[in-house]
Amino acid sequence: MISNKISDSNEISVENKSKYSDIEYLTRVKLAAAYRLVAHYKWDEVIYNHLTARIPGTDYILLNPFGMRFDEVTASSLVKLDLEGNIIDEGSSNLGINSTGYVIHGAIHRARPDIESTMHTHVNDVVAVACYKEGLLPISQNALIVGDVSYHDYEGISVNLEEQGRIVKSLGSENKCLILRNHGIVTCGNCVEEAFYFLYQLTKACEIQVKMLSIVGGDTSKLTIPSEEIKDFVIKTARSFTKQGNGKKEFKALYRLIETIDDSFKN
User: Fold this and answer.
1) Does the pTM of the predicted model rise above 0.90?
2) Which segments constitute the Class II aldolase/adducin N-terminal domain (predicted)?
3) Which fold has domain 22-261?
4) Among 140, 193, 208, 266, which is least packed by CB within 10 angstroms?
5) All residues at 6 or more sequence positions from 197 whose CB lies less than 8 Å from its CB, including other chains
């Protein structure tokens, strides 16, 4: 169990009493905590949407069972898949997976070994920005922190494996945030913490943009746009706050919150 004393370390430590290796169990716990946090912020959509994590040092990813709410997800309920979409361990349920989760997330994990975690949501303001022709505008500090964002044109519900190559191409080789036109967003990270960090920042940036556009009646000429120099400064400054990687300190703080509310996600 994590100590009640707050440590300077950004790393989360948990006692492993499961059948899984230490690294797999820790990955499961962090991903389950992320699911609970998404539910806590009300970014979930019944049983839909997905968060994934690659088990470090393997070609296996973890995905939520199809039929379980985000506030029900636990470490042991997560389904283990290989990168071809085959179920290796169905977890503690027999619910299986939603194939759309593999189409989007599996494609990214296969093509981008630098990405350990992906998160996909359909929050109202996020979808509104995804429908907006101009996309995400660099009008808030949160939008500047996110940095460059990729876009993928809508092709309907993601059930076609042929779309995987186009999703990967749209994301590109370096970006970690993808806006799915008319659909939602995908954020990526080199760990669960970083993917959640971008999910938080991008979601808030979209909320601010929708509110701001409503204030100005959609007239973008009334908006102030920071210079490229300021944008670069914001990105570099934000990255310097957490030397061990984007989002680790923030995620650990939120981990303590969700652990206090209900620590059953560790089971």
Assistant:
1) yes
2) 29-210
3) L-fuculose-1-phosphate Aldolase (3.40.225)
4) 208
5) 189, 246, 247, 250, 251
131-155 burial by CB neighbour count: b if 16+ within 10 A, else e?
A: ebeeebbbbbbbbbbbbebbebeeb
φ/ψ bin of 86: left (φ > 0), alpha (ψ from -120 to 50), beta (otherwise): beta
Q: Is 28 helix (H, G, I), strand (E, B) or coil?
A: helix
Question: What is the amino acid identity at position 31?
Answer: L
- Express each pLDDT in 86-133 by its tens digit: 999 999 998 989 888 888 889 999 999 999 999 999 999 999 999 999
Token pair 């059930």 is at which residue?
159
Partners of 63 in the β-ladder: 79
- Overall residue count recorded for the chain in this entry: 267
Rounded CA separation 52/196 (Å): 11
Amino acid at residue number 196: F
How far is residue 124's CA from residue 117's CA, in Å, rounded to a whole number?
Answer: 23
Dmax (CA) for the chain in angstroms is: 58
Specify which residues 151 forms β-bridges with. Answer: 179
Domain ranges of the chain: 22-261
Residue whose C-alpha is closest to residue 88's, from 56, 58, 115, 118: 58
